[in-house]
Design goal:
Length: about 300
Amino acid sequence: MRWALALMALLAACRANDDAPAPAASSAVAATASAEAERDPRIVVENAGASPREVLEVALGDGEQRRLRIEAVVATEVDGEAQAPTTFVAEAALQVKAMGAGYRLSATFENILPGKDGERLPEAEALAGLEATTVVGPDGWVAPLMAERALPPPSAQLFASLDEAVRDLWAPLPRVPLGDGARWRSRAERRRGGALVTRTTRYRLEKREGAVAILGEVEERVVAGSYRDPALPQLTLIAQAGLAAGRHQVRFASAPLGIPQAVESSVAGDLRIALSPDGEAASPPRKVAITQLLQVGRED
């Protein structure tokens, strides 16, 4: 669930409905995708699938280069009022460097393209030319994406959505042999717009003529509490409830798993939150409904 984009919608609604000023940009705003510790996914295999079976792992080529196209379409409602939909399209150059048992990925966002409505997001322009890095292990776990420079708050929140797209290029992989029809589930904790979110995903493996697909059903619940989003240090986010559900699929040409051929996901959810600027009382709680479609594809 892209809680960061939901927070952007809430901020926009607050400014439109309450005529409140936007929070000032910090001169050293950290990207939302920070390196704070997150728990490794806890994986349970429910069915090892049909024979033949093999241990799936991520295996990339040292120095490998690929081009990716990322497209996200987000529709939001705040207290039942529809907000202008957000469409974001980016092209990224991806480069791989082997390091130990894993791989360092560098992504440079070279082109920020107009969406289907022909508009360019102002907050997206700051991402043009940005280099970001992450690390992926053979087990499919992807570390948070780190930007090379600080970003203004709206751009930092958009970068958080890119972080989620990159981190979903693979899936947590059991370290046991799996065959066609295998099923497993993972549970992990992530940060979304500063808030702590518990994510449970149920995966199913499909193998057809050498090709591999991992299909997932995702559920995310926000943990109630008060949080600070690194992209908006002047605000405290008070999350009362939040639930999202959706589907996710990643397709590979073969095993072992390289950079995927395509990633598609759809998710819908509701979040009930309030905002508290420093030194001020919290705003009334508002309900944010969000629906997002995400596609990532290779252009080579």
